[in-house]
Design brief:
Helix 9 crosses helix 15. The strands form three sheets. An eight-stranded mixed sheet has the order 7-8-10-9-13-17-14-15, with helices on both faces. A six-stranded mixed sheet has the order 1-6-5-2-4-3. Strands 11-12-16 form a three-stranded mixed sheet. The chain folds into two domains: 174 residues, Leucine Aminopeptidase, subunit E, domain 1 (3-Layer(aba) Sandwich); 300 residues, 3-Layer(aba) Sandwich (Aminopeptidase). The radius of gyration is 24 Å and the shape is elongated. The chain is α/β, with parallel strands linked by helices. It is built from 15 helices and 17 strands. The longest helix has 29 residues.
Length: 507
């Protein structure tokens, strides 16, 4: 099969902004602050080109805006890319994330092979290690291009981006470099999660995802991987995942990745459980044709779990974790499960299927039960679960449901740190009651109202005895958020940064 060609590498180095040879020199500019000393020097060397651009109104430094200045050999860089920071008083760490992503995005758009990002505003209490990580992650995020099935000759497209974060102070560069190390690992992992989700369903199906997980685990020190194929799933009576996948020629897999360092701070392992429906037609309850091609993104939760496991092992985090990925393909076929069927899940609970397109909760039911078998006392599941969550929150935030306030607060804190936003939604008995069955223990859908809440309530029935959180990431699985104008269309690999940050803070 085709291989991903686009590679991104980030480093930090001490350099003179006027002398560094690069295709693009990116410089952030606040709309309400006079130029820094370095920016004034560059402007003078460029004959006042930056000042003129501001005066004629072509660049007002609004957040996320940008403008190229061609240097004509007056400095070593071929182009200067001005990136708007907006007002300084409103700036946050996320300002650097957005603008660095924008810089990488625009650099790749002009087929630049080299990018230099200048840190020139002086802050006494700046956390340069954190800045280094954020900027590195952002360069990976904005620079990413999914091109593995493009057939142009290599001289018609770039295949890599080499980026450096530059500062004129070596001690600061050393601090930035520490952050670059982590940012490089996380950024690469998030981008590969995007690639997995962007691949067509005919290329990336449960057995193939399992093979990739095996390969990643074998290549990453500290990880081990176990695969349950359809025969093993049947032997264990995992009726949820088997029911969803029984109509497909690509049979389901449960992927279990273990990370258990000797210095783990937690006595009981934490479970990350990911929904990985590699393609979701809706099954017999067939989805409308419009935009069905986007249903390859229905494996986003599983991809995030897989790449988080790789990330925490590479970062050598002192925390024991199981990654449980529930992979299936939901297709209509002569052998598909039907509305009205009753499935017996791994837990023993029975579920009446009222809609075969409410399949994510069924595979997660078996994944959460497996977490209990592995003696996990804390579990977080990620799933592109409901369109109802998109209706509730738009395309800007994931829905957060939990039976444990402390766990929810830790997730919210990690989400804020990583700019992968979540919003708490209710997990309460009234929604649980709606999911009770009349001829079975549970049913897989309730009324048309509050679908994200009732979906979470269903999943929560399989998380009893654990501190549990459910992230409905349907709103944030791709770049359709209108604010993400600096990203190539497709998956964004949501959750890798958030889960990694959550696990880095386990005490």
């Amino acid at each position: 099969m085709a291989k991903e060609m686009f590679k991104i590498d980030v480093k930090a180095q001490k350099a003179d902004a006027a002398k560094i040879k690069t295709d693009v020199l990116a410089i952030g500019v606040f709309s309400d602050v006079k130029n820094s000393v370095i920016l004034d020097v560059l402007d003078k060397k460029l004959g006042g080109a930056i000042t003129r651009l501001k005066k004629i109104g072509d660049f007002k430094a609004a957040l996320g805006s940008s403008a190229f200045v061609y240097t004509n050999g007056k400095i070593a860089a071929e182009r200067v890319l001005l990136i708007g920071f907006g007002e300084q008083k409103k700036a946050t760490m996320d300002t650097f994330r957005q603008t660095a992503a924008k810089a990488a995005f625009e650099a790749v758009n002009v087929k630049a092979k080299k990018l230099a990002v200048l840190l020139h505003y002086e802050e006494k209490d700046a956390n340069f290690e954190k800045l280094g990580q954020i900027i590195t992650e952002a360069i990976h995020f904005g620079g990413y291009r999914y091109n593995e099935f493009m057939t142009q000759k290599t001289d018609e497209k770039i295949t890599s981006l080499s980026a450096v974060i530059i500062k004129d102070n070596q001690s600061v560069v050393n601090k930035i470099s520490k952050g670059v190390f982590a940012g490089q690992i996380i950024g690469q992992a998030q981008n590969f999660a995007r690639t997995l989700c962007n691949r067509p369903g005919s290329v990336l199906y449960p057995a193939e995802l399992a093979a990739i997980a095996k390969k990643i685990s074998a290549a990453t020190k500290g990880l081990s991987c176990t695969i349950f194929d359809d025969k093993k799933l049947a032997a264990k009576k995992m009726g949820g995942i088997l029911g969803v996948g029984q109509g497909s020629v690509h049979k389901p897999r449960m992927i279990i990745i273990k990370y258990s360092p000797r210095n783990a701070k937690n006595k009981e392992p934490i479970a990350l459980v990911g929904k990985a429906i590699t393609f979701d037609t809706g099954g017999i309850s067939l989805k409308p044709a419009a935009d069905m091609h986007e249903m390859k993104y229905d494996m986003t939760g599983g991809a995030a779990v897989l790449m988080t496991m790789q990330t925490i092992a590479k970062l050598k985090l002192p925390v024991a974790v199981y990654g449980i990925i529930c992979a299936a393909e939901n297709r209509p076929d002569g052998g598909s499960y039907l509305p009205g069927d009753i499935l017996t899940t791994y837990s023993g609970k029975t579920v009446e299927v009222l809609n075969t397109d409410a399949e994510g909760r069924l595979v997660l039911s078996d994944g959460l039960e497996q977490a209990k078998v592995l003696k996990c006392k804390t579990a977080i599941d990620l799933a592109t679960l409901t369109g109802a969550c998109v209706v509730a929150l738009g395309k800007h935030k994931a829905g957060l449901f939990s039976n444990d306030d402390k766990l929810a607060e830790k997730i919210k804190s990690a989400a804020k740190e990583t700019s992968e936003p979540v919003w708490p939604l209710p997990y309460e008995q009234v929604y649980i009651d709606e999911m009770k069955g009349t001829i079975s223990d549970l049913k897989n859908i309730a009324s048309r109202w509050g679908g994200s809440c009732t979906g979470a309530a269903f999943i929560g029935e399989f998380a009893k005895g654990m501190a549990w959180a459910h992230l409905d990431i349907a709103p944030v699985s791709d770049t359709s958020d209108p604010m993400k104008k600096y990203v190539q269309p497709g998956s964004i690999g949501f959750g890798v940064r958030l889960l990694t940050e959550f696990l880095r803070n386990i005490k």
